[in-house]
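Hi C.,

You asked whether I'd gotten around to modeling the 156-residue construct. I have! Everything is below, sequence then structure, no commentary in between.
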Amino acid sequence: MKRLLVTLCIASVFAACSSQSTNTAVVVDSTAIKQQAIDSERARVQAQQEEDNRIAAARRRQREEDESRNVGSSSSQAATGSGAATEAPAKKGWSSAAKGTLIGAGAGAIAGGIIGHNITGAAIGAAAGGGTGYLIGRAKDRKTGRVVKKDPPPQQ
């Protein structure tokens, strides 16, 4: 039994030390992985630039269309004093409702975990905090004009 154990140990040492070609394969794979990451990042950046260019072109077209429509009505706008100030704000970035939900859920999870001393308390706190944060953020979105309250359906 001792001979078998010694033989296995020696064989494993020789097997571990004799794999010189494997190390070069790892280096080659490492550089290939790095190159692949660089290529994918370049492709992502190029796609983002193309998307930005497409959005900018769409905005230019929209602005040109708006200007061409406003050419005939410019005298009426000057008389009423209205203009670009009546446009709705652009929907850009996270809404207040989304931010409120995220912040409320995080704060609720922390508070629920501290108060309940377990994961169940954290889950309940996250749900309650997320709901409360959403309601507060949605109200803020309505005040800023990002969300317009829908009219109720007509009564029959």
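If it helps when you're writing up: Residues 74-85 have pLDDT under 50 and may be disordered.

Thanks,
B.
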